[in-house]
Amino acid sequence: MRSKFLDKIFTTPSAIYQSINMSLKYKLIMYFMLLSAIPIIITIIIVYNMTAVTFEKRAVQSSTDKIVDKISYFDNYIREINSILSEETYSADTLNYLRLLNSNDASIEDHSEILDRMAAQLDYIISFKSNLVNSIMILPADHNKYPISRGKYNYITAFSGDYRDSPMYKQTIGIKGHEVWDFSVNENSNNYFATASSVLINQSENQVLGIAVIFLNVDMIKEIFDNANSSNGGVYVVMDQKNQIIYDSDNSQIGQRYSDTALLNRIGNLSSGSFKADLGGVKNVVTVYTSANSGWKIINAVPYKNIVKDVNQIAKITLWVASLCLLVVFLIAIKIYFSLYNPIKKLSSSMNKLGKTNLNIQVQTNRTDEIGLLTNRFNYMTDRITMLIDDVEKEQIQKKENEIKALQSQITPHFIYNTLNAVKAVVLMGRNDNANEMITDLISLLKAAAKNTSEFIELEEELDYVKSYISIMQYRYDKQFIVSYNVDYSLLDSKVLKFILQPVVENCMIHAFEKLDSNNQIALQVYGNKDYIEIEIQDNGVGMSPEQIEGYMENNKQNSENKFSRIGLKNIDERIKLNCGEQFGITLHSNLGEGTIVRIKLPLLK
After folding, report:
1. Quick one: 239 exposed, middle or buried, by C-beta within 10 A (0-12, 13-18, 19+)?
2. Model confidence, pTM
3. What per-residue confidence (pLDDT) applies to 516?
4. Which of 55, 123, 143, 379 is least surrounded by CB atoms within 10 angstroms?
5. 89 near 200, Cβ under 8 Å?
6. Are 419 and 476 spatial neighbours (Cβ–Cβ below 8 Å)?
7. For all residues of the chain together, what is the average pLDDT?
8. What region holds the HAMP domain (predicted)?
9. Residue 74 contacts by C-beta under 8 Å, 6 or more apart in sequence?
10. What is the distance between the alpha carbons of residues 483 and 472, in angstroms, rounded to a whole number?
11. Where does residue 84 rank: exposed (0-12), middle (13-18), buried (19+ CB within 10 A)?
12. What is the residue extent of each domain of the chain?
């Protein structure tokens, strides 16, 4: 009964709520971690991006500074070449030599003298500018004349066939008054040449006499930019106006034309500056600078990952610091969890226990905050609930006990009348001893019914009442019942409820048998263990159907006029449950035509 009462009080939708909502423990930790982690993560992202941008700017600036430095050196180199070329372009000896070749008036001695003087002059230049110049050539407009070639190359090795058919020669003749910078590859020798050329003109007659060509020391260009290659994986490329590569860091593309049209468009539209581009599937920062003297472009490409590798190192350090901060935050969250959640968990656990019929619960606390106030209120509530339930149970038990005592005291007149008639008949037959025994048994039953002492008596005393009742009934029905006993005598001093066996035996005698004969048997057994006692009363009567069993257990007044008292099986079952607990009571087993077994389960009380 207590369990049913509590179920009505404590039935709540907690299971549904728990399936929808996260535990408070996880909410506390999750919210605290989120509130702490989000600013840290945002800070890391901002710091990383700002640092990456800063490092990128520094890398571009460093690349630009290096290019400007090398361009300055390169332009000085170009200016020196221009100066030498200008000297040859306007050299009197050079122009006189070419005019003599065209006039056909000079003698061989004149040719030789001028030729020797020019050769000496060119040799002088090459000897003092060998780091800049490989060769100098004076190429007459008429290739059948005597070209002058001094230095590493001559016009035969430098040109394939007639030099006048070369693009460099044609371009130089076509542009008067300006130097022409060119880069070409000799298909026969597989050599590549960087040249600076200028047209030679007879100003008085505005006649093209030929061109002066300086073959640059390409190794000098290589030396300039090899020294510029940095440790960050960047590469340098020098490209002429025709997009032909004059220099690259690994020497694998010299003489080739760059084929990436999109990249060429970006480079061509940019005099100087930087941009990001994918080169071979790798993101690079490309810096471009154009030489003012030659028009050649110097390009530096640095892989972006190399630029930000230091940023990644900083990011790792920042990540470690952030992880440490998160660890501290987690420890603080755990501290908050222990200080806030544990008392709530203890209180929640106590509430769950309270809902499972355990009312003797008090939660210890020394807190003075809201949690302490809630705990104290809970303790007060459990005390009040316990008091109220105890009061209700005591009231119900007292009511049932009074009802049972009233039933016990109401011995039916018919039973007394029939018993006295049986005594009278026995006396008339002269069986005074039997009459005396019947009166003694009746007095014993009446005395037990009238006694208003403890609700519990010893099993031995309860069996004596049953035997007294059976003795009376045997005389009344002329010993037409066979009653057998099988009792564990170690249980005789156990405490049982008074008058729980007599009504069961009485029901067997009155209701179990359709006719009385010598085969009407009733067996009473008592057995048990360390926890409980079972009393089994079995008859071999007509038995009952399930419907009859249910009605039999519900009816408290089964033909009570002819019975010793008005106590029914339901009364007994309720008394046992009220005094001993819901797990104890009466169970009834029966089948039509097979008799009935009544089992009474009681706690073992000494």
Report:
1. buried
2. 0.44
3. 63
4. 123
5. yes
6. yes
7. 78
8. 342-390
9. 221, 224, 291, 298
10. 13
11. buried
12. 90-221, 410-603
Among 304, 272, 269, which residue's Cα sits nearest to residue 288? 272
Minimum mean pLDDT range among 101-105, 272-276, 385-389, 489-493:
101-105
- Sign of the CA dihedral with 132 first, then 138, 141, and 144 last: negative
What element of type H or E holds 303?
Answer: strand 297-303
What tokens were used for 347?
């209180």
DSSP state letter for 595: -
Choosing among 3.40.718.10, 3.40.630.30, 3.30.450.20, 3.40.50.10810, the CATH entry for 90-221 is: 3.30.450.20
The answer on pLDDT for 266 being more than 90 is: no
Integer Cα distance of 107 and 400 in angstroms: 160
**Dihedral sign of CA atoms 444, 446, 449, 453 in order:** negative
CA 135/CA 123 separation, integer angstroms = 9
Q: Which of 236, 309, 289 is nearest to 56 (CA)?
A: 309
Mean per-residue pLDDT, 158-173: 81
Least confident range of 257-271, 429-443, 558-572: 558-572
Q: What is the per-residue pLDDT across 247-260, written as a single tens digit (0 to 9) for each?
A: 887 777 787 777 77
The closest of 438, 419, 595 to 520, measured between CA atoms, is 595
Q: Range with the lowest mean pLDDT among 6-15, 61-70, 248-257?
A: 6-15
Which amino acid, one-letter code, is at 513? F
Residue with more model confidence, 396 or 6: 396
Helix 2-10 with 370-409: angle, nearest 10 deg: 140
For 236-299, give the DSSP string: EEEE-TTSBEEEETTSSSTTPBP--HHHHHHHHT-SEEEEEEEETTEEEEEEEEE-TTT--EEE
Q: In a 3-state reduction of DSSP, which class is residue 584?
A: coil
Contact (CB, 8 A) for 364 and 371: no
Between 191 and 566, residue with greater pLDDT? 191
The pLDDT of 203-227, averaged and rounded, is: 82
Cα–Cα distance for residue pair 90/565, rounded to 1 Å:
154
Question: Quick check: helix, strand or coil at residue 534?
Answer: strand
Classify burial at 68, counting beta carbons within 10 Å of its beta carbon; exposed 0-12, middle 13-18, buried 19 or more: middle
Rounded to the nearest 10°, the torsion over CA 438, 444, 447, 452 is -150
Contacts 24+ apart (CB under 8 A), 348-354: 350/378, 351/378, 354/10, 354/382, 354/385
**Rounded CA gap, 581 and 571, in Å?**
15
> In the predicted model, what is the mean pLDDT of residues 28-41?
75
Using alpha carbons only, what angle is made at residue 309 by residues 305 and 312, rounded to the nearest 5 degrees? 110
Q: Which CATH superfamily is domain 410-603 in?
A: Histidine kinase-like ATPase, C-terminal domain (3.30.565.10)
Distance CA 371, CA 338 (A): 13
Distance from chain centroid for Cα 546? 58
- Residue 411 has phi, psi (to 5 degrees) of -70, 130
Higher pLDDT, 298 or 347: 298
- Could you tell me if 564 and 415 are in contact, meaning their C-beta atoms sit under 8 angstroms apart? yes
DSSP string over 154-193: -HHHHSSS-GGGSHHHHHHHHS-SS-EEEEEE-TTT--EE
